[in-house]
Design a protein that fits this description.
This protein is of the alpha+beta class and about 450 residues long. Helix content is about 55%, strand content about 20%. The protein is built from 14 helices and 12 strands. The chain is elongated.
Length: about 450
């Protein structure tokens, strides 16, 4: 039929069907049995064609949903010549198809962008599920692996056993360094771990970064700072020794050339000069001995320590000085709070910190020191020591952990660097925050 309007097509088909029914009745009434058979066949064909035509909308809807389920957004439907209601239906279907196509193209573009981004960044990225299957790995991570085509952590264990074990044992929030031989050189790789869940599937996202360049740059900067401090300290001691030695040598040479003995003033000058040389030599020896103490720390003997008892014991050491200077000391620590540490080594750290705090409060109208201990989210102990001293200038604050750097006339400059080193072998953190006229806060995490 050449009709396009759905209602008109249905009416025409029903009309034809009615004519065939009338023809069938007529043939039966006139006993035209052979013609009746032909009419019945025509009737059956007309009924089937009517049903097929009416079901066309259902087939279109079925095809639409199948196409959507298979992510095929190319199917479109003609919106003209089917009546107002069907035009609206097919217009809605086409609109949905266009929306799904737009969303699909946008997701595809985002996926391509993120894939390129993941491939271009200098951080290695690896994603594994709870079964150890690798779902995502970028080119940077592949460069860290002996076999870049691994599919799961079991394959990784063949050539990179240590790295595979580190990936398996890593927990969310972990941040530690793994050493890996890359191109014949040992490279420190810093590893960060997080977990994500997608549709009831859990994935471990691991990022790995080669920090050789950063460590080498920091190491070079540290050496340069140390050399400047060492050079300054040594020159301060050697220059007067050289000058004084030259003066005494000239005095002795002059007397020998004149072949005369030393007068009492000359002997006095020699005596004082030798004492000065001896004093500066002892100072250099003390300086060298202090430097040696930074490089020869004993291995820590870890044990469980009560934090509150530890703090009270330290305050007892400075009890007399605190009373004499009228310092108000407050402390806050859960009596059940414990930490794992070497108490003797850690005492050196707190003695340095507490001594600095006491000295910082000198001259303050109401000197105060506050010590607070608490448990962090990662089950480590945080100890905060605050004072209301004059604070530390920013340019000085950046240098306080440099060995031999000191702003005190009688200071050696090894107290805080030594404390930092002791805390590091405890795998802890030591930091200081301060502003001028705002006091100082020392934060220790063990």
């Amino acid at each position: 039929m050449g009709f396009e309007n759905f209602r008109l097509n249905v009416v025409v088909r029903i009309f034809i069907l009615s004519i065939i029914l009338l023809a069938l009745v007529y043939c039966v009434y006139e006993s035209l049995y052979l013609r009746s058979v032909y009419v019945v066949i025509a009737l059956i064909i007309s009924i089937i064609e009517l049903i097929r035509y009416v079901d066309k909308t259902n087939r279109d809807l079925t095809n639409f949903f199948l196409a959507i389920s298979q992510k095929d957004f190319t199917t479109t439907y003609s919106e003209q010549g089917k009546g107002a209601s069907f035009s609206k239906l097919y217009s809605a279907l086409n609109h949905l198809t266009n929306q799904f196509r737009s969303i699909s193209e946008e997701k595809e573009a985002q996926y391509i962008f993120l894939s390129l981004l993941v491939e271009q960044i200098r951080v290695g990225i690896l994603s594994v599920d709870q079964h150890g299957e690798i779902h995502l790995i970028n080119q940077t991570m592949k460069r860290f692996l002996a076999n870049p085509n691994v599919k799961n952590l079991d394959d990784l264990e063949v050539n990179d056993g240590d790295l595979a074990a580190a990936f398996r044992d890593a927990k969310p929030g972990d941040s530690h360094v793994v050493k890996k031989t890359i191109e014949g050189k040992i490279a420190p790789l810093t590893m960060l771990v997080s977990e994500i869940s997608i549709r009831d599937k859990h994935f471990k996202l691991i990022s790995v970064q080669d920090i050789r360049n950063e460590l080498e740059a920091n190491e070079l900067e540290a050496w340069q700072r140390l050399i400047r401090v060492l050079t300054h300290e040594i020159m301060n001691s050697v220059s007067p020794i050289i000058s004084l030695t030259a003066t005494l040598s000239k005095l002795v040479t002059t007397r020998n050339e004149a072949k005369v003995g030393f007068s009492d003033p000359d002997r006095n000058t020699l005596q004082k000069g030798m004492e000065a040389i001896l004093s500066r030599s002892k100072g250099l020896h003390h300086f060298a001995d202090a430097y040696r103490s930074l490089t020869r720390l004993p291995q820590p003997q870890f044990q469980e320590v009560s934090v509150s008892d530890f703090i009270e014991k330290l305050l007892l050491l400075f009890d007399e000085e605190i009373k004499q200077k009228g310092i108000s000391v407050s402390r806050s620590a859960d009596p059940h709070l414990k930490m794992t540490a070497d108490p003797e080594l850690l005492e050196q750290v707190f003695i340095n910190i507490l001594k600095n705090a006491i000295e910082a409060t000198d001259g303050q109208p109401s000197p105060t020191i506050a010590i607070d201990a608490s448990l962090a989210m990662d089950n480590r102990v945080i100890i905060m020591l605050r004072d209301n001293g004059p604070g530390i200038e920013k340019d000085v604050l950046d240098k306080i952990f440099i060995p031999f750097f000191t702003t005190k006339k009688s200071g050696t400059g090894i107290g805080l660097p030594l404390s930092k080193q002791i805390v590091q072998i405890h795998r802890g953190e030591l930091s200081i925050q301060s502003e001028v006229n705002a006091g100082c806060v020392v934060r220790l995490v063990i």
